[in-house]
Each structure stands twice: as C-alpha cells, then as structure tokens.
Recover the amino acids of this structure.
C-alpha cells in the first residue's frame, strides 16, 4: 500500500469535512487539562452507549459470553464502563498524535523496557506481542521514548480513515506495516528491529485455529509462531492499562521462553492466556466492541444472530 498513499491534505472533498471538523474539535479537547479531556471522553462514551444500539448489543453479548458469573446488572454496568473507555480512547488517540512528550511522561510509567532492549542488544528482532485495548494508541508514544519500533495496522474500508490511523501511529512508530504483510514484518525483524503486533482479533479460517477465549471458541491466527521463527525474533508481551487516577501503566513482560515451539497451537494458547490475564485486571478496557467470536465453522453457534434483545 505504500505506493498508493496520499497525503492527508489531499482529502478535501466535502464528504470528508465532518471528519476534519471532528479532528479539529479533538485537537482543542487535547489542549485541556488531562483529567478534563478524559472526562469529556467519558461523556462521549456515555452518549455512544445511549445511542449505539447494535454496537451496545455486541459489547453486551461478548461480556455475557466471557463473564457468565456476573449478574445481568453487573454485565450492563461493565458494558457502560467499556463505552466510557472507548470515549477516552478517542481523546487518547489525539494525545498520541499531538501531546508533548513531557506531558506524556508525566502521566505514564513504562515498566520492563529492559526486556526488549536486552533482546535488541543481542542482535535479535523483537515482536512486541500485544492485544487490542482502548489504551493502544497513546501507549505507542510512551514506548517510542525507550526504543524505536514499527507498528502493524489494519486497513479501514475508507482510505481516508486508514491514512488518519497510519499517520497517527507514525508519530510514534518509524514505519507502519499492514497486518497481512508478513514478509515486511519478517524483513523488519531480521534487521534487528522491534515490531508491535496485536493478533487477538477474530481472523478468518485460513491460517487460524479454534482456541477458547474465556472458555468460548474463537478463531485465532497462529501466525505469531511463524513470524517469530522466520524473523528469528524474541517475543516480548506488552500490555498497557489506564489506572483509576487517569494515568497509564505500560508493562513489558520477560521474553517468552521456548517460543516459538514446535506446536503453533500451543504457542497461541500461551498468548491467549496472557491476554485473558490482563483483561481481568482492566476488563472495561478490552475491545469488546469487536465481534470476537465470529467466523467460526457452521458446526458452532452463531453468537451474534440474536442481538435484538440486548439492544
């Protein structure tokens, strides 16, 4: 896609004006004190919760499947907290693009950077193995102060939205790599670079296996093992979290031993277990708005066929 990219300034048609207006408003919000900006984000999230019937139903179904021990009232409360986290994510996307580095340092703490630095110093590439949490966008700016990295992204159906996402991440990352471009990821790893990779969202059946997520069958790519093997890379789990005081804790865990093994499915199960453990520390911050349990074979239930009752 690199040869097809157009600068943001080329998106001037009237159909793009509402997005530009939203970006301008977001820029102004990001100039406010941090707690005030996040409070506005929470309000945006509450509005989205009140008006987003179909999206709200997806979130409620995912939470119902993953946390059956919660009462209906507790699940609804968690769904609302997730929407407020999504609203704060919007503000944090702006902070990731525009905030001063000094400000980001004052509201965040990076733990375990030595795990990636040691692997890079040994001459190996590093897969920064993460997952889709609502603090994803802001954490890149903080991590970039410790070491350079490349970031994987997913194309949007809109070229304009894709370019907004890519250009925002490139404030932190040296370059961005489309998630299907395994060859480019491998080249980057072989050059002794770090690649930020979050393979937890639902994939189609090619190159994927059915692995339980919170006890529910889900399609997971096994490409991480292949990527680590071809790139001769260490795999360092990386998980961010927004704390109750509106600051951020970004944790890099020790590189996974015996990874990749001879069993890509077992490797993927190790990764899924790590994601589950982190989700339990901040359940409202995982990306529940995504249809995590789609694309299963026909012999499995369609978990999203009856969402009307959850709207």
């Amino acid at each position: 896609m690199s040869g097809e990219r157009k600068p943001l300034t080329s998106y001037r048609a009237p159909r793009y004006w509402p997005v530009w207006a939203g970006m301008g408003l977001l820029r102004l919000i990001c100039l406010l004190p941090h707690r005030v900006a996040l409070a506005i984000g929470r309000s945006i999230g509450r509005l989205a919760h009140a008006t987003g019937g179909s999206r709200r139903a997806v979130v409620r179904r995912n939470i119902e499947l993953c946390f059956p021990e919660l009462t209906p009232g507790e699940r609804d409360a968690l769904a609302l907290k997730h929407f407020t986290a999504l609203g704060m994510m919007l503000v944090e996307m702006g902070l990731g693009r525009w905030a001063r580095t000094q400000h980001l340092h004052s509201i965040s703490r990076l733990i375990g950077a030595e795990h990636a630095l040691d692997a890079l110093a040994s001459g190996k590439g590093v897969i920064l193995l993460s997952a889709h949490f609502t603090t994803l966008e802001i954490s890149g700016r903080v991590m970039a102060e410790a070491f350079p990295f490349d970031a994987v992204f997913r194309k949007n159906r809109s070229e304009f939205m894709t370019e907004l996402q890519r250009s925002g991440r490139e404030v932190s990352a040296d370059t961005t790599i489309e998630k299907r471009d395994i060859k480019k990821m491998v080249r980057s790893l072989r050059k002794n670079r770090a690649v930020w990779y979050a393979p937890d969202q639902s994939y189609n059946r090619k190159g994927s296996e059915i692995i339980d997520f919170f006890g529910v069958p889900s399609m997971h790519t096994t490409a991480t093992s292949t990527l680590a093997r071809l790139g001769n890379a260490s795999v360092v789990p990386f998980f961010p979290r927004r704390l109750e005081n509106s600051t951020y804790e970004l944790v890099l865990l020790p590189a996974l031993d015996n990874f990749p093994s001879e069993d890509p499915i077992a490797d993927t199960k190790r990764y899924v277990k790590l994601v589950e453990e982190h989700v339990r520390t901040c359940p409202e911050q995982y990306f529940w708005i995504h249809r995590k349990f789609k694309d299963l074979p026909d012999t499995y239930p369609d978990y999203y066929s009856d969402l009307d009752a959850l709207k």
